[in-house]
Amino acid sequence: MSDADRDFGPSEYLCYRLLVELEDSRSYPVSGSRFHKLSCIADRHLSSELGCDIEFPRHWYVYGEVVDEQSLDGDFYIAPSANHWSGRRYLPVEDVNDWEFDVSTDRKGAIDEAVEWVVESFERANAERVEKYQYRHHVPNEFVRTYNDLRTQLKEVDLNRQYTLGDFRVTSHSTRGFVVESLEAMVDTYPRDDYPEAYDLFLEWHDAVERLLETEDPDYAVVEEFLDSFVTMLAKVELRFHHRRHIPDDRIRVWERERLEAKEAFASMLAERREELFDDASWSESPRTDPARRDSRSGTDGSASVSFSRHLDSFD
Question: Residues 174, 181: contact at Cβ < 8 Å?
């Protein structure tokens, strides 16, 4: 793309200055996750603390708020494959000039101030710390916070010893117990009125995880896999529609087309995985049933029941 074809506005200026300042600082190399999340944190600071709304395109997706990269003129950066991790490294393009951005002097000053605050606050923060900051300050609702807490805990589980690890100390709380409690919290906090498109799939997913926990030796890596696949579907079907700002109409139309595809792909995957895991083809064909109307089933470890029926009563 020639310089004359570039269409750089305030959003591109914020992202460009962020990449430049991070490269010039003591920051780690900028991964896609850090770029997408830190740019949103900068925009939020710009809006809330400096009173400047630049109509920055952002939305919640899977495990954090991200810039909608496709809504930007991306000619100000490159993103080659990273050398030391699986993913891409984001770098500012060297031949971009300040005068190419159609942004007033006052706005540039405010954006520069917001970027400076972000770099000072997060230059040595890895992607995990940036994500934790978003969940602490910007999470859209308790359901999103709850499923992230479950994901975080699953990653900290000592699978061999069947304990959770907190501050590197073994606790007396069984793995099965905290997974059950976390799933119960997800049921309690699911915003059925706000996320109706994904509700039936949530019930099917919940039923699959419930059955996983009924086995004598649950595979918690599979539970984590199920959680990630569910959250990815939820992001495409619900999250980015309800928790977004300044997303162009043409992007919304693309999302609408992807919404049905995401639901169908997840439903198909879930049916296949349930059949593989439980060796019960007839069960995978069973009708969707609200767990509130199923008979309670007891867990195999006595103290940790895997029935969620009492928690779904509030959905009726």
Answer: no
Please give the pLDDT value at position 262: 97
Strand order in 244-245's β-sheet?
Answer: 65-67, 58-60, 244-245
**SS3 of residue 244 by DSSP:** strand
Q: Looking at the chain, list the stretches that DSSP marks H as alpha helix, in order from N- to C-terminal side.
A: 10-24, 32-50, 105-122, 127-137, 142-155, 175-189, 199-214, 220-234, 240-242, 249-278, 281-284, 309-312
184: nearest Cα among 63, 305, 62: 305
Buried b (16+ CB within 10 A) or exposed e, 102-112: ebeeebbebbe
* Long-range Cβ pairs for the range 84-90 (8 Å, 24+): 84/29, 85/31, 87/31, 87/32, 87/33, 88/31, 88/32, 89/29, 89/30, 89/31, 90/19, 90/30, 90/31, 90/32, 90/34, 90/35
Integer Cα distance of 264 and 30 in angstroms = 34
pLDDT < 70 stretches in the chain: 1-5, 157-173, 279-316
* Phi, then psi, of 245 in degrees rounded to 5: -145, 130
pLDDT in tens, 271-306: 998 888 776 544 444 444 455 444 433 333 433 333
DSSP state of 75: G
pLDDT at 177: 84
| Residue 225 Cα distances to 150, 151, 219, 246, angstroms | 12, 10, 10, 32
3-class SS of residue 165: strand
In this prediction, residue 259 carries a pLDDT of: 96
Q: What pLDDT is attached to residue 83?
A: 86
pTM of the full structure: 0.82
